[in-house]
Amino acid sequence: MDLKGNVALVTGGATGLGRAICEELLKRGACISICDLDSDAGENACDELGKAFGKEKVLFCHCDVTDYVQYEDAFQTTLAEFDNIDIVINNAEIMNDKFWELEVDVNLNGAIRGTLLALQFLGKDKGGKGGMLINIGSAASVKPQISTPIYTATKHAILGLSKACGDSYHFNHTGVKVLAICVGHLDTGASSHSNRFTSSVHEKAWQLDMKGIIPQKTDHVAKGIISVLKEANTGSIWLISNGKAPKEIPYSVATV
Ligand SMILES: NC(=O)C1=CN([C@@H]2O[C@H](COP(=O)(O)OP(=O)(O)OC[C@H]3O[C@@H](n4cnc5c(N)ncnc54)[C@H](O)[C@@H]3O)[C@@H](O)[C@H]2O)C=CC1
Ligand SMILES: CCCCCC(=O)/C=C/C=C\C/C=C\C/C=C\CCCC(=O)O
Question: Which family is annotated (predicted)?
Fold first, then answer.
């Protein structure tokens, strides 16, 4: 897919999946704004990706998604640098139920802040040109991860947020397509520590959660995300897990 001339703002873009998404966007001709709390990793990613794809195509904005003002500044800086923002990817996260208030503030409130800002900066009803907002969910958005109930709650909420904001009722006003992409386990957890769980019972449950899971390479998932970007309908939910191709999944709720 050709994304030449598009500008994408990616939170948590300094490392992991976020960085892989940035690289895939650059390969397709987009400019990227890496928005991340980690300045060292962010500057490093900016440097390396700038060398590979052109310095003028990559920007790093130090940004803590738990701080609305910093996050808004990142949008302003990106706009000032590239003149437009077409794609916003809410990807920043932590998975640590021990620090559950921070986890909710990053994973859920951060995504809400990013959604409100994307609608404000991109929305046709606000003078923007429309565009796309991608909220990164997890396999834990659709299948409870019993070792981390609070992480699970944040990732379930991503679906409700994306479905409601991505409804065609809103899309007809804003021109902003909203998608949720649920990602299965990645192969980046090697340096992870077990200090993420609220008890030894929860830590033990991680083994159950991981049963049958095939860890995925970040570039496989990043490529999958790019492949669904343009074709997907607003409000749709996609799953990329166990190394398979992306598939659209239904949003099931009990009939009310
Ligand atoms: N790692 C995995 O196995 C899975 C990850 N996911 C989802 O994929 C996405 C990316 O995950 P990973 O690449 O594994 O994450 P990661 O932990 O490798 O990277 C997260 C990035 O977010 C940044 N970040 C953390 N707090 C921030 C804040 N307050 N403000 C701005 N940036 C902040 C970090 O500095 C880091 O660069 C997340 O939304 C995650 O929930 C979903 C399923 C599995
Ligand atoms: C079944 C859904 C899988 C989705 C997982 C997810 O959304 C996010 C995962 C994020 C990080 C996983 C990385 C490492 C695992 C962390 C700790 C394992 C340590 C276990 C131990 O030491 O016993």
Answer: Belongs to the short-chain dehydrogenases/reductases (SDR) family.
Quick check: 13 and 42 in contact, CB under 8 A?
Answer: yes
Buried/exposed 17-43: b ≥16 CB within 10 Å, e otherwise: bbbbbbbbbbeeebbbbbbbbeeebbe
> Which value does ipTM take for this structure?
0.94
Q: Could you tell me the distance, in angstroms and rounded to a whole number, from the CA of residue 220 to the centre of ligand 2?
A: 18
- The pair of structure tokens assigned to 225 is 């995300």
pLDDT band at 253 (very low <50, low <70, confident <90, very high): confident
Q: For ligand 2, is residue 139 a contact (CB within 6 Å)?
A: yes
CB of 221 closer than 8 Å to CB of 240: yes
d(CA 76, CA 92): 19
191 pLDDT band (50/70/90 cuts)?
low
